[in-house]
Amino acid sequence: MNISCRRQLRLKRSDPDDTSSLHNRHRPISQAIQNLSSPQRVHMPGASAFLDNIDPATVAETPKTVKLWLPSQLPSNTRDKSCVKGLPRLEFRLRLAQAHDALDLIRHFRSVYQVLLMKNKVHISTSQGTMTKAKSIFSRFLFKIDRAAARYRDARVALLRLDPDERFAKWQGKLKELRREDVRGPSREVDEKSESRQQLSWIWKTASQQPDAGINDPEVQDVMRVEWCKAVARTERFEEEIKLIVEEMRWTLLFFKWTVDNWEGLGEARASEPGLDQGTVLGITAYAARQAALYWCHDFHLFTHFLLKFEAPKHSFKS
Questions:
Q1: Can you tell me the distance from the alpha carbon of 167 to that of 140, in angstroms, rounded to the nearest whole number?
Q2: Is the predicted pLDDT of residue 20 greater than 80, yes or no?
Q3: Mapping DSSP to helix (H, G, I), strand (E, B) and coil, where does residue 170 land?
Q4: Is a pLDDT exceeding 70 seen at residue 212?
Q5: Which H helix or E strand runs over 166?
Q6: 308 CB-near residues (< 8 Å, 6+ apart)
């Protein structure tokens, strides 16, 4: 960056009329809050006492901290009396759409984030500029994911206040509580040790309300198809390993059976040799029986019968 560019940036930051200044960024929010006050007093006559407590100075300086006193923010025992009929249901529909939209954003940003991670692992560069740029991109996407998650949590809190008993619609089964560990996937995370123990988060199982967003997005669909193929491959590999373990155990048991018969045959053959006294015959027979007993158990035949009839569990994956 040359000296003239640095001077322009310095002048831009010190300019009080710069559109990127904090005051000018707060101005549209403050104006929107002021425009909301008039229709609120018409449609929420019982909330006038709360609206009168809003400080105009706070609206101008820190509008993000102002409580708007929407129907979801009113006490539940006075909400119906303070609002015109149908207004809480109207905000419920707004919050429902807001929650689904936030979930769509989380799914989209997570899929893009993991694609970037995979590309960064394949096309890795050790230069400081490339690593710094990649870290900046990852931080930007993580910030967007956290912001969408906060938006979803705020919408769900409002839904719980407006409709805790699901009188308006059945929504709590689809819009669950979003914990920090739920914001993951669709692929395996870095801290997850095994793909076989990976559990897909519920955010990927909730259908989107928009036809071309969220899990209906073609990019997300491609990622989910890859995860489905990987899951099928893992299942088939595990079933094959179960069959191999059963077969190897069967070979082991057959070897034990052969060893038992071999020791018994050796004992009988040596005991039948001519010229041996009674004590030597008894000793040879006892030693052979002892060696055979090491490979024999009481439930040998029962366990072998169960093992030969054992079948690996079947799993079916439907497209």
A1: 39
A2: no
A3: coil
A4: no
A5: none
A6: 250
